[in-house]
Amino acid sequence: MQTTRTIRKQVDDRLRRWCAPAGLLLNTYGNNLYKAGENKALGTLLFVLGMAMAFYGVPWWKRKVFTARWWHDSEKVKTFLWAAGPSAVILTYWNRPEIWQSPGDDRLTYSMLRWALLGTWLAMAAGGQERDPEDFPIEKLPRRIRRATHDRIWSNLAGLGVAVVLISEQFFATYKAPVISTSLTLAAGAIVLLHKTHTRVRKLCTKTHADVQALLRDLDDLAKAERDDIDKTDVALRSWDALHLDLRAGIDTGYPVGMPFLPASTLQALETKILAAIRSGPVTPDAIDAAGEELRALQAACADHLDPLA
Fold this sequence. Notes:
Layout: H1 4-36, H2 40-64, H3 74-94, H4 106-127, H5 141-171, H6 176-224, H7 230-248, H8 264-278, H9 285-302
Helix pairs in contact: 1-2, 1-3, 2-5, 4-5, 5-6, 6-7, 6-9, 7-8, 8-9
């Protein structure tokens, strides 16, 4: 029986597989629409959206298909051809000049764009967040942090894109100036959201790094104690409580749809190891080393995002 996490991972793999070719097609369509001069605003939006989709999907292709000597793997070749064949046909059709010589009906374009953006927003906001295995190693935490950050940014951009498309579709012909002003305001809001997401990641990583360091020092003090020291044990437990809160916090947002810093199973395993080290009577250097290895891996994962002034 498939778990929810397995289903989410399968959905995410399929989404990333087709985001790259679909993004390329949307990018080309927007570019042609812009060059035709009939709707430059929509053409620009489609161009940027297609580029974002392509960037979202490319990591999957680099990881799953375009590995070393991939052309010797029949399954990888089939995957490439299934995407490249239809894309080449559609690109050939869309790049014919006669298609763009006369204005067309924008209603279908708006509808397609609206649903594409809405689906991207919903999928990336909640559907693709928690897809790491239960035995997730802390050494891979930097990739998890990057993925959570990028997914939240693109989700926010897609959500604001839905708002722009809806406003343009309903009111652009009648209230052109207010629509342009509102769209620019939403674009500024997208920049603010991007900044807030990165700021949250830097703050969380900085605090986690500091709390890990405090716990490591408390564990060292506890190991140097000549006998069971209740005061030092309590200090170490308080340090762990502070770090535990950090590791449960969402990386990209504080709302329930955010991705926790560590998967629940990994956090539980780490908690068991830390508490065992603290409460093992006279704490031994071996117990400290066993817990300290994973704590230092946490610090290494946060090292690229440190900002004491965030």
